[in-house]
Amino acid sequence: MPHLSDLIRRYTALKTADLEWFHSLVSDWQLLADLSFADLVLWVRLRDDNGWVAVSQMRPTTGPTAFQDDLVETVLRDDMTEIADENVQSRLVGRKALIDRAWDEGRICREGDPDWSGGVPVREETIPVRREGKLIAVIQRSTNLSSARTPSRLELTYLQSAGDLAQMISEGEFPFSDQGPLMVRSPRVGDGLLRLDQDGEVVYASPNALSAYRRLGLTADLVGARLDRTTLDLASAAGGDPRDESLTWTAGGRVPQEAEVEARGSTVQLRSIPLVTGGVRAGALVMVRDVTELRRRERELMTKDATIREIHHRVKNNLQTVAALLRLQSRRLNIPEGRAALDEAVRRVGSIAIVHEMLSHTPDEVVDFDDIADRVIEMAAEVSSTGATVHPRRVGNFGLLSALVATPLSMVLAELVQNAVEHGLKQEQGSIEVRVRRDDPTGAEDHPGRLFIEVIDDGGGLPVDFDVDGTTNLGLQIVRTLIIGELGGSLEIKPRESGGTRVAIEMPLESEVQPYRWDH
C-alpha cells in the first residue's frame, strides 16, 4: 500500500505542516475507529481541485468492517459520468456528496438512511478536519449496521466519547500538538476505558479498567471517585511518591500523556485524552492497560542481558589468561618455528578476546566493529616478527555487526594483516590499507545487504604459482574457511599491478551460519 506521504505529494498541493498534521492524526485515529465501531477513510482535495482522493484508511477492532476492499488511492472526481456501471456511479456520487457537504458547511454531516448498495446496511458520516482553523481534509466514518442491537452502557459510552473526539477533530483540537511521548505499546480502547467528567470524577469504568484497578488494591467503587486522588493513594500505599505530578495530571485527564502506576506487585499503564469541545473541557478519557506480565518479562530480559554481558567479560578474561600463558611458553622455547606458532596462537586468541570485550559492554549481541577492526589491525601489525615498520590504516566504516559476524571477521582481519606483514612486507617498512564499503539492505528480498573489504599492501607480492585454494599456509586456510564456510562470502587474492597484494572479500551483513542444535 502506498505511503501517506507519497500519496499526499503525488495527488495534492498540501503543505508540509498539513502533512505532519495528517501523520499525527492517522497515528492515533485507531482510537476514533474503535470508539465509533466504524471504518475511517481520510479524503483530501486533488491538486487541480477537481475532486477527492483517499489517502488513508482504518478499520475498527471493536466491530465488523464496512469495507472489504481497501479504498486508499480511490479518486472521486467532480464529474463521474464516465463510470459505466450505474450502481457504482450512484454509490460514489452519494459518498462524494456527503464529503462535499462536510467540506462546504464545515461541520459533521450524517446520512439519514443507511446505505445498502454494498450488500450490508452502512451508516455514513463525514467529519471535517481542521488545522489552525483551516479545513484541510474530510474523514468518512462508515458504520456496519448488520449486527446492530440494543447498545449496552459500554457501547453508549464509546459512542459518546467518539462523538466528542469527532467534534474535536472538526474544531482542530485533535490530534494534540503538545502531546508527550507515547510508549511503544500504548493502551487501546479494548484494554480498559475510564470516562471522566469535567471535575475528574469517574462516570464510567469498563470491566477491564475496573479489574486493573482491583489488582492495584482498590476495594471501593471506582465510579464517582476522583481518579487522580484514587490512583495516587494506591501508588503511595505501595511506597510511591505521593507528590508525583506526572501521575496526577495523567490520571486526572488534564494533559495528553502516559504514565505508569505500580502497587501490590502489579503495574498499570495509563493514557489520558482530554476532551475539549467548543473551547470548554468536557471531561477526559483514560485508557488503562495491565502491563504487569510485560514488565516482568522486561526485567527478566534485562537480567539475562546482564548475565550475557558478564559471561562475555569472563570469556575475555579467560582468553587473555590463555594468551598470557602461551606468551610465557613462547619465551621459553628455543626453536624458532615453535615460538612463531605460539605467537600466532597468541594473536588469534587475542583477536577473539577483543570481540568478547566489546560484547561485554553492549546490551545486545551487536557491536561497533570499527573499534574492533582498529585494535585487531594494530595488534596484528605490532606482533610482527620481521622487525619491519608497518603503517596500517582503515578506510571506510564497518558499522554495527552482529556477534555471529564480528567474531570470525576479527580473526580474518588479524590473519590477513599478519600474513601481509610476515610474507608481503619484506623491506624495513611498508603500508597496509584496509578498505571497507558497506551496502546496507534496502528491504527488498534480492538486496539483503553486503560488506566489501579489501586488504592491500605494497610489499613483494605473491609467488608466481600461488593458488589460494591449494595453499598450505595455515593463516590463509583459516581465512578461507571462515569467509566461505561461516560467513557465506567470497575470497579473492591477487597481485597488484603497482606491486604488492590485494585481498578482496565480499560477504553478507548477516551471518548465514545456522546455530548448532545440541539435540542432534
TrEMBL record:
Q: Which SMART domains does this UniProt record tie to the protein?
A: HATPase_c
For this chain, one GO molecular function annotation is:
ATP binding
Q: What organism does the UniProt record list as the source?
A: Nocardiopsis gilva YIM 90087
Name of the protein described by the UniProt record: histidine kinase
Q: What is its EC number?
A: 2.7.13.3
* Keywords of this entry: ATP-binding, Kinase, Nucleotide-binding, Phosphoprotein, Transferase
Q: Name one Pfam family in it.
A: HisKA_2
Top-rank taxon, per record: Bacteria
